[in-house]
Write a structure and sequence with these properties.
The protein is an alpha+beta fold. The chain has one domain (3-27, 41-85). It is built from two helices and four strands; from the N terminus they run αββββα. The longest helix is centred in the N-terminal third of the chain and has 20 residues, at 7-26. The radius of gyration is 23 Å and the shape is flat. The relative contact order is 0.11.
């Protein structure tokens, strides 16, 4: 008998699914501050090497592309700045 076909395993999966659905349904709705708002962004493509825009490889790694995101909203600027520092 397959591992997933055992009665105890099926019961465990059903119990797990039940609790996942229950936790998702009992979560409080998002507050007004946490909801998404439209945001104006300016986006531009960024090459791997500004001196050699055709370069796409660094050793065995292949650069697939990069984007620079900018916004006039200070909250986005702060979050993008902190993401760069990681």
């Amino acid at each position: 008998m397959n591992r997933l076909q055992r009665p105890t395993t099926r019961i465990r999966w059903r119990v797990l699914l039940f609790f996942l659905v229950l936790s998702a349904l009992s979560a409080p709705p998002l507050s007004g501050a946490a909801r998404a708002e439209p945001l104006a962004l300016s986006v531009r493509s960024v090459p791997l090497d500004a001196g050699d825009p055709e370069r796409t490889r660094v050793g065995a790694l292949e650069f697939r592309g990069g984007l620079e995101l900018r916004s006039k909203r200070s909250a986005l600027r702060r979050s993008l700045r902190s993401a760069r520092q990681c």
